[in-house]
Write a structure and sequence with these properties.
Shape: extended
Number of helices: 2
Largest sheet: none
Helix content: 40-55%
């Protein structure tokens, strides 16, 4: 009905998981996870960090990344 010419605002969008099309998404997700772990050690477990961690873990599930191997 309505025409919308804006980008999708979904944070965890579909990618071809570990192929060439994914680019640096998997590496960036791992870097983000490690940075969040350092911040949790330094600042403690804040609400913002909890929300960020749930997003990163959702990306890991989407990309089929095992947390135990990081």
């Amino acid at each position: 009905m309505w025409l919308r010419n804006k980008r999708p605002h979904n944070m965890v969008y579909s990618v071809k998981r570990k192929g060439v099309y994914s680019g640096g998404k998997i590496g960036n997700a791992i870097k983000h996870y490690k940075a969040l772990l350092k911040r949790i050690e330094f600042e403690g477990n804040t609400l913002w960090l909890q929300n960020a961690m749930t997003r990163v873990l959702a990306k890991f599930k989407k990309y089929a990344i095992n947390i135990a191997k990081i």
